[in-house]
């Protein structure tokens, strides 16, 4: 066992962990933050995406011991009060169905918008291509991220009622 | 625009109400099975077979048992003592829970390890030593049907071949006569490959047996919690788990799509382990286990034929199917329908004769045949009819849109009796295709295609105009293991006018917490925001058969409307009493009863409900509650007109979907935003098998793409930006005129895509492409045809 200190959603934790413990299990089991999900065993689905020192990573590909002294943000810490513009965007534009991929999508999109505050549809599609969603067909996830981008830039918000002719 | 009868505040039908369930999902507060943690909970992991067909000669558990933290290793021989080593499937076949002596497919469960921690259980799996004697598997379903094929199911007494069942529908002789005399006949062989639902959440459970109270609480990923409770009681009643001692809880479900209907061995082993050890046992499968061992979908080999006149009138169709079920028929169809509702294969066209026959066969593949986002084999049927219709159009050199217009069932022909006996409730197929053609700009696209073809570029336009059959189903024909396929709603309105509504179905992302509330709001005028919807707990919800086959709106949605109407009748009596008028003098508008001609003399639903608890008429039962079990008089028949435009890269063979227009008709729409979202998602699950997905096995029975690294679920990059629209042809027999929509796009999209690709290559003499249409497949054809 090895002792690590890690800050998660602004709270510092010191824990004894098995050197082989995956970060995603540290988050889900040791810290009981079950918003971060597991959808595969080959690092393809992105359901476990979190922010490590502000960078989106798949927490199933990292050992807990590797985050010693670092800063982690999960979906539970996305908004200190109320909803983050991305959370609002996902709700407003119907960017989720079953909700299982949603936390990973949200955390991925945080970094995407930080690097590119005004992404095109194609840039969003490539930007979330490491995260699988089986329910939505992605149309509305793209719109959700566009909504959040507009809100974070302080621009006029896009129409969120469905374009359903 | 969709007209709404209620205000936005009430939020009845037609409003794009934002989803009530989203608050927890976007904040990481959903509760899925793997999020459940109980005191003293143990973890289960499964040892799986590396061989597709082998005798088990020995299982040595010593090393695994010696690992600290391991409590038990369970084998088939252990379960055999309790007669739990085999279980029935929903299709009255039998499936091993754990094998005693033989494994029948690669990745089959061989033993289960129970340990104090997840990682220890996984370590112990590696320490279980299993000795196998491999045998040559039978992988090809056609070879499995040959007379000299080895018999796989020797566990079945007297079994002398690999044939499971034969099914047929229609008048063979009359159909054959039409084919004999027809001017034009087309025939195509098509395989609808084995695929997987691949919901992002895999399957799992927490079985919690309480020895003191002899009570089992089973948290599990199931789309049909009530049916599962009954099955558990039927299978385990003899050891004391009678039905009142079993509670099944289906918490938040991370996508189902039909894959969470069956009972998998893992669930049963977890129950057995918890029962024997007396502690909660959690089992969560890995993605690879999920892809390799859970129920597959499709795997139908179809010969489709169409007969018609030279000028394009369809006269008859014929279908012959070989259905590969793997080692057992573990499909989840209504019991009387071994091929599900394949007999919708006559499609949207008006002609008198059809004949379909099917044979099912055992092979050394995983069991299943689940209805993946499809009302039991409708995907296969729609693929066959929509492909063969295009083959016919191509054969007589007629525009595929015109051919469809010329053969559609007219809107005034409904209710329409199809050649295979279904009574289509309603439809307006001409309007749908007309609209799709306008939105996509069909005539301009044809011009563009001609120009491009002249320049040597490859572009195709494909159409699919399908009829779905959903909402199983009327009790005279539809049951699962004898339980009729009704569904239910129970509404309780509290004294302050807010309500809780419970249902026998179970949302897996469809948004029931919102849409059911909207139905009740529509009927009672109570704001949808104040109607709490609950599903998935068998201790509290009324009995129902669950959510699959697009049946929730057609059955439980109908039950919600009728239960609400029962309450409105009661409300009327109370209003008449409060207003001191007779019931005949009252009129309803959403949210209140008022006196005819005196609209200010009114009682709101909230005032009426309050009176039901505080001032109800003498002789009337107090309270404000209603329950309804809805047995549909018929199925519902949603339809759609889809047009796909593809461009093909000649250098690589890659198919790019440039545009895809989907016009759906699901009758009256409860929530346009959710309907549109369902269509987007379903289309992507139609794109996937058309271009990317197939579970591939080699001759030795090895799965070649059993992980997400090589089984390509489309990402946002592969998926096009879908264009959606609707027409509204209400179901005449459904209380709110709704039909169900979730599955239409999955069913309708693949043939539109294939038809587009074939259309792009038709000038080269290509008449058919097998799915998935991968780039190498296209490139190979281009090379063969000298078109590179």
Description:
The complex is a heterodimer of chains A (165) and B (788). Chain A is α+β, with helices and mostly antiparallel strands. Chain A has 2 domains: 2-76, Beta-grasp domain (Ubiquitin-like (UB roll), Roll); 85-153, DNA polymerase, domain 1 (Orthogonal Bundle), CATH 1.10.150. Chain A is built from 5 helices and 5 strands; from the N terminus they run ββαβββαααα. Chain A has helices spanning 23-30, 85-92, 102-115, 121-127, 139-153, and strands at residues 2-8, 11-17, 49-52, 55-58, 71-73. A 5-stranded mixed β-sheet of chain A has the order 2-1-5-3-4, covered by helices on one side. In chain A, strand 1 (2-8) and strand 2 (11-17) form a beta hairpin. Chain A is elongated, with a radius of gyration of 16 Å. The model of chain A has no long low-confidence stretch (mean pLDDT 97). Chain B has 788 residues and is of the alpha+beta class. Chain B has 3 domains: 33-135 and 203-284, Alpha-Beta Complex (Aldehyde Oxidoreductase, domain 3), CATH 3.90.1170; 296-472 and 634-784, Aldehyde oxidase/xanthine dehydrogenase, molybdopterin binding domain (Aldehyde Oxidoreductase, domain 4); 487-630, Aldehyde Oxidoreductase, domain 4. Helices cover 28% and strands 25% of the residues of chain B. Chain B has 19 helices and 33 strands. In chain B, the strands form 9 sheets. A 7-stranded mixed β-sheet of chain B has the order 3-7-1-14-11-12-13, sandwiched between helices. In chain B, strands 9, 10, 15, 16, 17 and 18 form a 6-stranded mixed β-sheet that branches. The longest helix of chain B is centred in the last third of the chain and has 28 residues, at 552-579. Chain B is globular and about 85 Å long. Chain B starts with 21 loop residues before the first helix and ends with a helix. In chain B, 60% of the residues are buried. At the A-B interface, helix 1, helix 2, helix 3, helix 4 and helix 5 of A face helix 1, helix 17 and strand 33 of B.
